[in-house]
């Protein structure tokens, strides 16, 4: 029995470490362990497709030699004389059968009659909730009896596979929801911005070309033929655009009649202009809608960005300005973005004032409270850096962080923010304020791989008495996936010195779902873009619910960012997310105001006054 317990532990660990990418390999390794341990002739794992009423082979061991293409045993109907396949549909109990299989209903030729006679099959259903989602089977010769150890292991492993399939399916559904447009199946704005963030990172090859494509006259089609026809028109255009752009390019729908194409290879502005001209001619066409001929034309705006200097939002805005110029000129044409845009002039001004150094006297911190939605108690505060620009006033980080990173000033800026925030937080605690709360500080992606980073953090928490786990460093999904091995090592070292870590903007399109089991992080912060419209946007609710489920599965703390409406707050509470921050609760405040809030021990939650139904539901 002890050997079987060790086997089950090994199987559980192997499945926990597996990802959607390695699911088949991990499943085969588990089956190989089972075959070897119990001296089986064959083991198989099949999942159920209830929509098509078929059983789909997921893994088998040993592999069959000379498998035909297509494999005749890969997909089999439930309607079969074989009891294992019948079990696959709705059965809930383990069965053992002896079967000749000469009737051709075998789930695999390897389980046909051998030297020992007709084989014995033990099969356990995979149960998820009330549904049978698959079957796990052991096969051996008829002359041998099934022992209780093998049967118990089979049932336990089937349960582990059911959990494994549910987790992988949830990860895949969440990834798809996060990254794709519902109507066309193209990538969405979140996915596009994440892609651009990677393509425009420091030291990536460039230029990066972007074509912003707007369907001309879609409103007229909707008005004349209705939105159903308009949706068909958009789907048809999306298919044609995908074919025109090529399989290697990023193709996204931003919403309505707006699409974006980003070629996968570096492309100069001149080459991008040639591509835009070709796409305008290729996408021009005539379609018949309800017996009427409609001409399809597009307006295109073209912009090219430089990695390390431009960001995705800037590139999109410049291309958007260009596409508007195309539409003002009558459409069915392309326009190049101006090289001297307002954003570029602003960036040049920031670079000039930084002048290769950061003036610490010009920096200041504001703090964003994080509360327990049920009580209003402040559970953490996030430090947010601001810069007093000599001409433009107080600037938010989006205005200057990217410039600082491109000028190799990120490390100096991060060090100032961390030490200043810890010093101020330590001062509050010395006055008896903020006991039991955490300080959250953002870390730039470049910092995680900077030599001496861990030493700098250790020195800071020692200087300001923060080694009690009250400091939490926040890293974005982009930072995590940029170099997963080094990031994992750095996060582990932070945990070793008593520092918590969280993944910021979780779900932003840089999904690290497959690494959650092994990443040494303590918390997830839901991307505010999924939170702002909760209560009115069903797609966002589906994503948030999936993230809540993942946090619970991996025992991670969960915080919602961007809570701006009572509807969003109540929806979060209804689905089990207690911690939140956002303008509904409080805007970022100065250090003095934050100290006062900590002194009051909490913030009012006025939206709870009208939530009697929720309170009754939760209690």
TrEMBL record:
Residues of the EAL domain: 347-602
Domain GGDEF: 206-339
InterPro entries: Biofilm_reg_signaling (IPR052155), EAL_dom (IPR001633), EAL_sf (IPR035919), GAF (IPR003018), GAF-like_dom_sf (IPR029016), GGDEF_dom (IPR000160), Nucleotide_cyclase (IPR029787), Rev_trsase/Diguanyl_cyclase (IPR043128)
Top-level taxon of origin: Bacteria
NCBIfam families in the cross-refs: GGDEF
Name this protein carries in UniProt: Bifunctional diguanylate cyclase/phosphodiesterase
Record organism: Mycobacterium cookii
